Amino acid sequence: MPRNRVLVHCSGSDRFLAMALSRRAVAQAIRVTFTCDNQDGRRDTSWIQLNTRITDLSLHKMLCLVKPTLFLELTAGTAPGALGHRIALGLPSGCTRISLSTLFQRASSLPLLCGPKVLLDRLADAVSGARLSSSDIRDLVIALGSINTLYPRHATSIIRWPSDGLFETEARTLDSRSIFSRDKTYLLVGLRGQIGQSLCEWMVSNGAGCVCLTSRHPNVHERWLESFRGTGATVKVLAMDVLDVSSIERVIKEIRASCPPSRRC
C-alpha cells in the first residue's frame, strides 16, 4: 500500500485537474481518492459520491477507510455544513490540509532548482496528457466580456480571449504612505542604474529615511546624490558583489555601523 494517500474533494469542473493528478500519482506510487457531491452531474463515475446530508458517522467511516495523509480541498465549500468543511473537521491527526487559496495564488512562483529542462519536461507531460475536444471543456469556457460579472469563477476556468479582444481593468493607486519609515534603512541590491535611482527617489519622497544602493560598479553622478540634500534622508551608494560573501558581510557591517536598522518592505 502506498505510504502517501491523498484525498481530494472536488466538483465536476475539476475533472481535468483530477485526471492530471491521477496520472502524476500513478507515476509516483501515490494513492488518490476523489470525493464529490452526488448531485454534481459532471462528476467522474469512479469518485466517491457523498450526499450533502451525510451523517458525521458515515463521513468518519469513509475517512477511516481512505486514511488520508493529505487532504486537497478544491471546492469553495468553507462554510460550516459544506461537505469540504465537514470532511476537513474529521481528518485524522497528522493529515495535511491544502485549500484553494494555497494551491492557486495571485503571484506566480517556481520551485527551487526548477530549471528550463524541468519546465520543458512538465510541459511535455501536460501536452501528452491533453486529449480533449472542444465539447469536453465547453462548460469551463468563459467569454472575455464576462470576467468581471461572472462570480464565483472556477479555478480551472478557461478564458476565451480572441486576438482582437479588449478588456477593461481598473488600476488602483498604491498607497505608499505607510510603506516606508524615517528611522529605517532600505537596501537596494544591484540597482544603481536609472531604475534603481528612480526607485530610490520614489522611496525618499514617500518617507524612506535611509536608502542604500549597491552594485559591483557603483558609478553614480555626484549631482544626483546632492539632490537629496534638504530632504532629511540619507542615500548611499556602496560597492557590493552578491557572489562574494566577504563583500556582502563588509557592506552589511558598514550599514549597521552608520545607518538605522534595516527593514523589509
TrEMBL record:
The keyword Acetylation does not apply. This is Ketoreductase (KR) domain-containing protein. GO terms for biological process: fatty acid biosynthetic process; secondary metabolite biosynthetic process. Keywords: Phosphopantetheine, Phosphoprotein. Residues 185-261 form the Ketoreductase (KR) domain. It comes from the Eukaryota. One of its GO terms (molecular function) is fatty acid synthase activity. InterPro entries: NAD(P)-bd_dom_sf, PKS_KR, PKS_NRPS_Biosynth_Enz.
